[in-house]
Amino acid sequence: MDVFWFTLMVAVASFLFAFVWAKVSINWLRWLLAASMPLLAAGAIYWTPVWLGGDASEYSAWAGVAVILGGLPGAVISVFAVFLIRRFRRNAPHLRE
What we know:
The chain is mostly helical. The chain has 4 helices and no strands. Helix 1 (about 5-20) packs antiparallel against helix 2.
């Protein structure tokens, strides 16, 4: 898989999950989830071919680089999206739950 598509998949998943993380009421947990889950998602997406029967030796050499390249942009997007969602909900009382 190309690095661009890998990073794009993690970024889109991180953005979508940001709507879930924005609903978490415990402040420190919300930000921890927003920052850490994209890294876990990058790892899961990266290792999926190995879990489906691929050769692990090829993947293990690049695992750290791939998780960082895919996870950090996803974490930035997730944290920024949670911030914007929370700000928007605070300024739009009719959207509060």
